[in-house]
Design a protein that fits this description.
Serine Threonine Protein Phosphatase 5, Tetratricopeptide repeat, single chain, 138 residues, mainly alpha
């Protein structure tokens, strides 16, 4: 996404979009959910799109979401809700990446551990937003 490197994109949104790009190959639906959350967050940060380039960024991201929505929904129909899918992926990430790094903490590259924790925090942030939304829809 060309706008992702732009100064228009706040770092809190850019980190979510980077994560979406990283996980897209292994789980397109999780990538979609992360992008959707990034879009919501961008809308909260600048609801009127008053800063230069914000409207173009949001439009480009919305087009990407529209393009990916049907494709990821079709592929994901059997897996259940987005919250369940996100939670499953989050647990998988923890088990596969965080735990092994913690177990080898003395030997682990500190930068790698820091990145893993940052990624973990983003997954958790997106997961929490889905659970709040699910709770509100009851």
């Amino acid at each position: 996404m060309a706008f992702m490197e732009s100064e228009v994109v706040p770092s809190s949104v850019a980190s979510i979009l980077r994560l979406a790009n990283e996980v897209e190959a292994s789980n397109p639906r999780v990538a979609y959910v992360c992008r959707f959350y990034a879009f919501e967050k961008a809308c909260k940060i600048d609801p009127s799109s008053s800063r230069p380039g914000v409207r173009q960024f949001k439009t480009a991201l919305l087009r990407r979401l529209e393009h990916d929505q049907d494709e990821t929904l079709r592929a994901d129909m059997q897996k259940g809700s987005d919250a369940c899918e996100m939670e499953s992926f989050y647990q998988h990430y923890n088990k596969t990446y965080i735990q092994p790094l913690l177990e080898a903490a003395d030997k682990a590259d500190r930068a790698q551990l820091k990145k893993a924790y940052q990624t973990d925090a983003i997954f958790l942030e997106v997961l929490k937003s889905l659970k709040v939304w699910k709770w509100l829809m009851r």
